[in-house]
Design brief:
Blueprint: E1 11-17, H1 24-29, E2 40-44, E3 57-61, H2 67-77, E4 82-87, E5 90-92, H3 96-106, E6 112-119, E7 147-150, H4 151-156, H5 175-185, E8 190-200, H6 212-226, H7 230-243, H8 252-269
Helix pairs in contact: 6-7, 6-8, 7-8
């Protein structure tokens, strides 16, 4: 337990970007925050290099691709006592720093704390868990840009993102689940704080749970953690989608085949 109170300037924001050719996105991210001076580390995966004149900004320009690689590079080069993962298309609330710092000061045993977001339409971004202490099921609702952590806990326990998962990788989703699952498996204390810290544009159709890319990646995650049982879990997952009318009965077999391709791909990458 850390009994020393965390100060606001101890929070470092770790931003991942890959399509920006200027620093304009930074102003949108922090437009609600007056006199913003917290340290920011930007990982820019682009051929176009970005430079900042602000003293509180550091930037690493890299040719390496994949969101998980970006996150890992940020974690390895972070300096803040508390770090917040960030995407370049979020907009923070005016009090997000205070919310995060207070959460860690009130939960001194917490290694990671997740938060909530609203959409650009003002609605809850997802159906967030009602639990305070995360479990293997509740972490499935969390986006990586809502994860804050004690840097020493993550670095000492070598918690990393799996580079096979995430945008720009073989499996385009599941990266945050694996990251949080790794933390749980190492007995780190992962909790949820039901406070909104940012807004994000509404989910696209490509992020729908019935999308083939999502099923492809989910099946790979099933195999990663459950081995042979993953074939049963995949079928059970599709039955649940059928039950809630997310897919039609005629799609069941084709979606299962997509999942099988995901499992085969994961096995070939292992």
């Amino acid at each position: 337990m850390n009994n020393v109170a965390i100060k606001n300037d101890s929070l470092e924001i770790l931003v991942s970007t890959n399509v920006m050719d200027s620093d304009e996105f930074i102003y949108k991210m922090f437009k609600n925050c007056s006199n913003f001076s917290n340290p920011v580390l930007v990982i820019n995966q682009s051929k176009k290099k970005i430079n900042f004149t602000r003293n509180n900004f550091r930037i690493i320009n890299t040719d390496q691709t994949g969101l998980s690689n970006s996150r890992n590079l940020a974690i390895n080069n972070s300096k803040g006592e508390i770090c917040l993962l960030a995407d370049d298309d979020v907009t923070y609330t005016s009090d997000f720093i205070q919310i995060i710092v207070n959460a860690f000061n009130e939960n001194k045993n917490a290694d990671l704390i997740t938060f909530q977001a609203i959409s650009d339409l003002g609605k809850s971004f997802k159906d967030y868990p009602k639990v305070k202490k995360h479990n293997k099921r509740s972490i499935s609702t969390i986006n990586s840009f809502l994860i804050a952590f004690r840097r020493e806990s993550i670095q000492m326990n070598r918690i990393k993102f799996d580079s096979r998962f995430g945008l720009g990788s073989t499996f385009e989703t599941g990266d945050e689940y694996i990251f949080l699952r790794n933390a749980l498996d190492k007995n780190l204390n992962v909790i949820h704080c039901p406070r909104v810290i940012l807004s994000h544009k509404s989910l696209s159709s490509g992020q729908d749970v019935t999308n083939d890319k999502i099923i492809f990646a989910r099946a790979a995650i099933f195999y990663k953690y459950y081995g042979f049982i993953s074939y049963i879990k995949l079928f059970h997952h599709l039955l649940l989608l059928l039950k809630i009318n997310a897919i039609k009965f005629g799609e069941l077999f084709s979606k299962y085949k997509v999942g099988l391709k995901g499992i085969r791909k994961y096995k070939s990458k292992s």
